[in-house]
Design a protein that fits this description.
Layout (H helix, E strand, L loop, with lengths): L2 H17 L8 H19 L11 E5 L9 H8 L2 H10 L4 H5 L11 H15 L4 E6 L7 E4 L5 E4 L12 E12 L2 E6 L2 E5 L2 E13 L5 E10 L4 E2 L15 E2 L19 H24 L7 H4 E6 L6 H12 L4 H8 L3 E4 L10 E3 H7 L1 H21 L2 H11 L2 E2 L2 E3 H8 L2 E4 L2 H11 L1 H6 L4 E3 L6 H7 L2 H10 L21 H26 L8 E6 L8 H17 L8 E6 L7 H18 L8 E5 L5 H7 L5 E4 L11 H7 L3 E4 L5 H8 L5 E2 L4 H9 L4 H7 L1 H8 L15 H9 L5 H20 L1 H14 L5 H11 L5
Parallel strand pairs: 1-2, 1-12, 2-9, 12-13, 13-17, 17-18, 19-20, 19-22, 20-21, 22-23, 23-24
Antiparallel strand pairs: 3-4, 5-8, 6-7, 8-9, 10-11, 14-16, 15-16
Helix pairs in contact: 1-2, 2-3, 6-31, 7-9, 9-10, 9-12, 11-12, 12-13, 19-30, 20-21, 20-27, 20-29, 26-27
The structure holds N-(hydroxyacetyl)-beta-D-glucopyranosylamine.
EC number: 2.4.1.1
Protein name: Alpha-1,4 glucan phosphorylase
Catalytic activity: [(1->4)-alpha-D-glucosyl](n) + phosphate = [(1->4)-alpha-D-glucosyl](n-1) + alpha-D-glucose 1-phosphate
Length: 797
């Protein structure tokens, strides 16, 4: 009997004896608690950690977000004990899938950025790449989304951690102390002493990340607490959480995750969170490094600090501060260590998401750091002066300066302080160099790289799609879960009728399962024969859910006008949250829900058209939707979506992408073959031209009858219970501004949608395309991304 089997059986005996029950009498909740505790014990006792550093350094992955999702199923699978647990439960009349539903989803992230961090932890542990994930232990994760009576988004707190959550443990031994405010005394020359006004403690919670046949490594999350409160008024932002008092409890520091995706809110408390995260993490990294008898000079040889976006940028001046003030190194030595240790991943080009902090605020909150940043800025000034001639200098300095117009530009700080900078898909990385940082690219040759994002096949195929996994197991030699490129082996089967039937039957079964979820969640009975057309992601104008919305309205109007016309039935499924303060995104959600109510109750649409908005999009819901998708909507304006990762998950599970040439769609089309995706819309270059010629969305509105009728339906009360003004802001924005060129891409999107309907009618060709998407997209495994980081960035210096 395996040691896990013994642990399982003896622990079950004790668990039941303590409760005076037989195993058959345990509730689902008790089973969940029991299995979670036993698996945690198994992880801690027997799973190896501390993998050796061979050709790479240890990775310290600093991220304000880790959207880890449910862990139990994933851990059982990666421990290799999933089947044993399933068998034990079956003996007691239970189903493991139902038990796993008991777990709370820790929503410690907003969207793609946080989910990517979680996939990377999984891959690093699976590849035995030594790593620690450093994040924050928010007491409330991303808000829960409800849909109100009028179709509007409502937000509720998500106290994930108040529930039973056995996947973490408190590391009291790792406590840190973090200072804020106060003053700096200039001792002499380069010597300064910071006397902070407040100190807050950082407590560590570790969540072991279990790799697939690999090792376990910690995701270390910091939570704030203090024995005294601090006067928040000093930071000019007393309104946080509508606090009645301007003196707030320090434990509130890590109370909530800011709910913005690709948008900076600029609140002082967020900066405090960022610094707290970085200060605790840097201290922890140095503690471990020095404990192994290594010197500070050896830091870049053994450690890399990967900055996940600019959110942890303040780690750069923090490491400088510690090296200068605590260890009394010279500026030159400290900078040499620092600039060889950090690497920065850029995840966005959107100006509203590129963080800049008010310099006065930074100076009040972190007075020592601002002195360091000023020095970095001065040193940079010399470099730029040396590289650019007089005519070029003004522009180059405008682009590269870290301090400009009383702002601290965090992306610039990251580029200056890192030895490597990468974008997250080829087109994005090219734009980072050509549009965002051209002067830096000239100044720091060889610093810029691309690492295309990836997703973990363990969660997004093996766990989310067990039926497809079983089919792949049957036909693929070798462990595709660990080497996703092995899926190429099914390419020759794409035309095989028997394989096609099996693949198609699995899709149909997954669609039935999703149909049940939809009925449970929103009471809508859907047509399982329809095309399941899926758009799941954060709501943001640049992601253009409004384009999808307008096409559905146009389709609805067309069916109404031609009731006899044959229609390929379609179910449009949406899920996603909008930032609570993002009015237009919330209007789009409301319009979709109102449109859904009209369409779903119209007898003329029966068997032809349905719309479902599934509330509270989260990792566990994504796992149910993705395997059932026929069509994957990736319709952002070209140049705006850095990469996307939902596009990869959907395509690997056999959905056909309808998309623009944006982010990783470009590479998906290359790998899958252009005939196995449907591309539409303007390209980065043609968008540039469109704007150069003075883009006027109103012209499209006036010239295209189908488009105009669709937009007008938003102002005639059809989808708003007669209220003609509900969507005024949305409509005004589309017709008069349209910053994301929705109207310019409408006709081409509509044609692409018609192409999808046409292709779907030839099921043999459709399934062949779907199979080829699964077979050819192995490169989008996050294991490949991690290997790219290892060879391009994390290699030993
Ligand atoms: O918007 C990008 C998304 O395209 C990308 O897939 C993800 C992971 O790289 O990062 C998102 N960026 C942000 O959330 C903010 O920079």
């Amino acid at each position: 009997m395996s040691s896990f089997q013994t642990l399982l059986e003896t622990s079950l005996k004790t668990y039941c004896e303590e409760r005076f029950v037989q195993p058959e009498q345990l509730t689902d909740r008790q089973w969940y608690q029991f299995i979670a505790e036993v698996s945690q014990q198994a992880v801690l006792q027997s799973f190896p950690h501390n993998p050796p550093l061979v050709s790479t350094r240890k990775v310290n992955y600093l991220s304000m977000e880790f959207l880890i999702g449910r862990l139990l199923g994933n851990n059982l699978m990666n421990l290799g004990v999933y089947d044993q647990v399933q068998q034990l439960l079956a003996k007691c009349g239970k189903n493991l899938v139902d038990i796993l539903e008991q777990e709370r989803d820790p929503s410690l992230g907003n969207g793609g950025l946080g989910r990517l961090a979680a996939c990377y932890l999984d891959s690093m542990a699976s590849l035995s790449q030594a790593a620690v994930g450093y994040g924050l232990h928010y007491q409330y994760g991303l808000f829960k989304q409800l849909i109100g009576y009028h179709g509007e988004q409502l937000e509720r707190g998500d106290a994930w951690n108040r529930d039973f959550y056995p996947q973490q443990y408190h590391r009291a031994d790792l406590q840190q102390k973090v200072g804020f405010g106060g003053q700096v005394v200039h001792l002499q020359d380069d010597k300064y002493q910071w006397q902070p006004e407040w100190e807050i403690f950082g407590e560590a919670f570790d969540l072991p990340v279990v790799g697939y046949k690999g090792v376990q490594q910690p995701l270390r999350l910091w939570q704030g607490y203090s024995e005294t409160d601090f006067d928040f008024a000093v930071f000019n932002d007393g309104d946080y959480l509508h606090a009645e008092s301007r003196v707030i409890d320090a434990s509130k520091l890590t109370k909530v995750l800011y709910p913005n995706d690709n948008h900076q809110e600029g609140k002082a408390l967020r900066l405090m969170q960022q610094y707290f995260h970085c200060a605790c993490s840097i201290a922890d990294i140095l503690r471990q490094h020095l404990a192994q008898g290594r010197s500070l000079e050896q830091l870049p040889e053994f450690e890399v600090i990967q900055l996940n976006d600019t959110h942890p940028a303040i780690a750069i001046p923090e490491l400088m501060r510690v090296l200068l003030d605590q260890y009394e190194l010279s500026w030159e030595k400290a900078w040499s260590i620092c600039s060889k240790t950090f690497a920065y991943t850029n995840h966005t080009l959107l100006p509203e998401a590129l963080e800049q902090w008010d310099q006065t605020l930074v100076a009040k909150l972190l007075p020592r750091h601002i002195i360091i940043i000023e020095r970095i800025n001065n040193e940079l000034h010399h470099l730029v002066k040396a590289e650019f001639n007089e005519d070029e200098f003004a522009q180059a300095w405008y682009e590269t300066a870290v301090l400009m117009d009383n702002r601290v530009r965090m992306a610039n700080l990251c580029v200056v302080g890192s030895f490597a900078v990468n974008g997250v898909a080829q087109i994005h990385s090219d734009l980072v160099v050509s549009d965002l940082f051209p002067a830096y690219a000239r100044l720091f040759k060889g610093r810029f790289h691309n690492v295309t994002n990836g997703v973990t096949p363990r969660r997004w195929i093996r766990q989310a799609n067990p039926a497809l996994s079983a089919l792949l197991d049957q036909h693929v030699k070798g462990d595709w879960t660990k080497d996703l490129e092995l899926l190429r082996q099914i390419e020759p089967l794409a035309k095989d009728p028997q394989f096609q039937r099996a693949y198609q039957a699995i899709k149909q079964q997954n669609k039935q399962a999703l149909a049940q979820v939809i009925e449970q969640e929103i009471g809508l009975k859907v047509n399982g024969e329809a095309i399941f057309d899926i758009q799941i992601k954060r709501f943001h104008e640049y992601k253009r859910q409004q384009l999808n919305l307008l096409n559905i309205i146009a389709t609805y109007q067309e069916i109404k006008a031609n009731p006899e016309q044959a229609v390929v039935p379609r179910l449009f499924v949406f899920a996603g949250k909008a930032a609570p303060g993002y009015f237009l995104a919330k209007q789009i959600i409301q319009a979709i829900n109102n449109l859904a109510a009209t369409i779903n109750s119209d007898p003329d649409m029966q068997g032809k058209l349905q719309v479902a908005f599934l509330p509270d999009y989260r990792v566990s819901l994504a796992e149910k939707i993705i395997p059932a998708a026929d069509v994957s909507e990736q319709i952002s304006l070209a140049g705006k979506e850095a990469s996307g990762t939902g596009n990869m998950k959907l395509a690997l599970n056999g959905a056909i992408t309808i998309g623009t040439l944006d982010g990783a769609n470009v590479e998906i089309a290359e790998f899958a073959g252009e005939e196995n995706v449907v591309i539409f819309g303007h390209t980065v270059e043609s968008v540039r031209e469109l704007r150069a010629n003075g883009y006027n969305p109103r012209e499209y509105y006036e010239q295209d009858d189908v488009l105009r009728n669709a937009i007008d339906a938003l102002t005639d009360g059809s989808f708003a219970n007669g209220d003609q003004h509900r969507y005024d802001a949305l409509v005004d924005n589309l017709i008069n501004h349209d910053p994301f060129c929705t109207l310019a891409d409408f006709a081409s999107y509509r044609a692409a949608q018609q192409e999808i309907a046409k292709r779907y009618q030839n099921q043999t060709a459709w399934v062949e395309s779907a199979i080829l998407n699964t077979a050819r997209l192995g490169a989008f495994s996050s294991d490949r991304s991690i290997r790219d980081y290892q060879t391009r960035i994390w290699k030993k210096a």
